[in-house]
């Protein structure tokens, strides 16, 4: 089980210990759609390139920052939102909207992930999950 750290020189702040059971794959365009930071060292990463880590609770992070604002183009029902569906736990979830960005708590660089409102495809229940882009971090 690895640790995800900030990929920037002079920072390398610990972000989270990776629980491999919570790793999901989202399509490539998620990075563009949400304008997530691309990891400069991704070719060295042992994990496949589209991996995200689902983090149910903000307290699961060692260190993380939250951006105050998100671009209006990412707000709910803006019309240009792709359909992103992933399996987590015993459910299949659809990303409804991006609420905030995750950034490095120390150097404020990012975004390294998103805080999303997601909807259970079975019963339409909604909850909030943190989706951390492992590609935007260094995995050690
Ligand atoms: Zn940092």
TrEMBL record:
Indicate whether Cell inner membrane appears among the record's keywords.
no
Matching entries from SUPFAM superfamilies are given as:
Mss4-like (SSF51316)
InterPro entries xrefs:
Mss4, Mss4-like_sf, Mss4/transl-control_tumour
Q: Which Gene3D superfamilies match?
A: Metal Binding Protein, Guanine Nucleotide Exchange Factor, Chain A
Which PROSITE patterns does this entry report, sorted A to Z? MSS4
Q: Name one GO biological process term.
A: protein transport
Report which superkingdom the organism of origin falls in.
Eukaryota
Keywords tagged on the record: Guanine-nucleotide releasing factor, Protein transport, Transport
Is Transport given among the entry's keywords? yes
GO cellular-component term (any)? cytosol
Q: Name one GO molecular function term.
A: zinc ion binding
- Name of the protein this chain belongs to: Protein DSS4
Q: Give the lineage.
A: Eukaryota, Fungi, Dikarya, Ascomycota, Saccharomycotina
């Amino acid at each position: 089980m690895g640790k995800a750290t900030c990929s920037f020189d002079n920072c390398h702040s610990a972000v989270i210990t990776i629980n491999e059971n919570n790793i999901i794959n989202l399509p490539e365009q998620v990075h563009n759609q949400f304008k997530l930071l691309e990891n400069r060292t991704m070719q060295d990463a042992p994990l496949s390139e589209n991996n995200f880590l689902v983090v149910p609770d903000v307290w699961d992070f060692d260190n993380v920052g939250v951006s105050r604002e998100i671009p209006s183009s990412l707000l709910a029902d803006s019309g240009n939102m792709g359909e992103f569906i992933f399996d987590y736990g015993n459910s299949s979830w659809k990303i409804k909207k991006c609420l905030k960005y995750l950034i490095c708590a120390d150097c404020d660089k990012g975004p390294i992930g998103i805080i999303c409102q997601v909807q259970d495809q079975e019963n339409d229940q909604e909850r909030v999950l943190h989706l951390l882009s492992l590609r935007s971090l260094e995995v050690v």
